[in-house]
């Protein structure tokens, strides 16, 4: 069993992992553990987000979607090759770490694994 951090809200030591989250069974608090929480230290650095080919992404970059994406509630989806400008990196849910606006679709969150830096 891994050495999981105690709950930051109630200090319960019986936390457990649920997918990418750590959950407290006593108060129900869920959070994403940082590397320093799980490894017991480490360099306090900024999170690095890379695209599908390994380029480091930053806020304000332009990216291109590399694979066709289905969009719930929209019959056409997002085609491969769609250019997205002025992205913003966020701590999203389920790996969706890019916040952006796509022409014709509006505000969306994308996974960095389906985009390539221009």
UniProtKB/TrEMBL annotation:
Official protein name in the record: Zinc ribbon domain-containing protein YjdM
PANTHER family referenced in this protein's UniProt entry, alphabetically: PROTEIN YJDM (PTHR30305:SF3), PROTEIN YJDM-RELATED (PTHR30305)
One Pfam family from the record: Zn_Ribbon_YjdM
Residues in Protein YjdM C-terminal domain copies: 49-118
Family according to the record: Belongs to the YjdM family.
Organism: Streptomyces yunnanensis
Residues in Protein YjdM N-terminal domain copies: 4-31
